[in-house]
Design a protein that fits this description.
Elements: H1 5-26, H2 35-57, H3 61-64, H4 68-96, H5 114-129, H6 134-145, H7 158-165, H8 169-183
Helix pairs in contact: 1-2, 1-4, 2-4, 7-8
Length: 187
């Protein structure tokens, strides 16, 4: 089902304030999701709710628009998106708790400042180096030098790391858990 401009304007007129309210309730962490991102996701959810309701009831948009059952259905879909997205954000919070918004902080993406990055890494290693064992320092250096070991979800590819180190996966897992406790982040 596709929604035409007139139908979308009806949906937007009736539910835009609710969508903005929900989008602000999802997360205050701009690095993960801004209210604008959340609002866009909610707009998609509203369109999916219309298609889902049409499929469920077999009615056309003009037939079910204004029905109490549809009103409850679309609101439920919007709040469910909020709950599901909020649960994912909460689950990933230990990984992202010290991140910054890349849109507002473009300097983070400036990869041409290799001297600056290596200086920051050296300072970081000096600060934390006394806490870590030699194996943990070696692993940390490998992660900094080869970021492909880190999966897109922020977790470390333990199998790849274990192969690179020539150690069993179980040993690497134990070392990473110990490092996570020291650093205060789940690796």
């Amino acid at each position: 089902m596709s929604v035409n401009d007139e139908q979308w304007s009806l949906i937007h007129e009736k539910y835009s304030n609710l969508m903005w309210k929900i989008s602000h309730n999802i997360s205050g962490d701009a690095a993960i999701s801004t209210p604008e991102d959340n609002y866009a996701d909610l707009q998609v959810a509203a369109l999916e709710a219309v298609a889902g309701f049409q499929k469920k009831t077999g009615k056309e948009f003009d037939e079910f628009w204004g029905e109490k059952l549809f009103d409850q259905y679309i609101k439920t879909c919007l709040w469910n998106l909020k709950n599901n997205k909020g649960a994912r954000i909460t689950k990933r919070y230990p990984i992202t708790k010290h991140t910054v918004d890349l849109v507002s902080n473009e300097e983070v993406l400036d990869l041409h400042k290799d001297d600056h990055v290596s200086l920051e890494n050296n300072v970081f290693m000096d600060d934390i180096g006394y806490i870590l064992s030699e194996q943990q320092k070696r692993i940390l250096n490998m992660l900094v030098q080869d970021p492909s070991i880190i999966k897109p979800n922020g977790k470390i590819n333990k199998s790849k790391l274990a192969r690179s180190l020539g150690l069993p996966w179980r040993i690497v897992d134990i070392i990473l858990r110990d490092m996570g406790k020291i650093i205060g982040n789940e690796l």
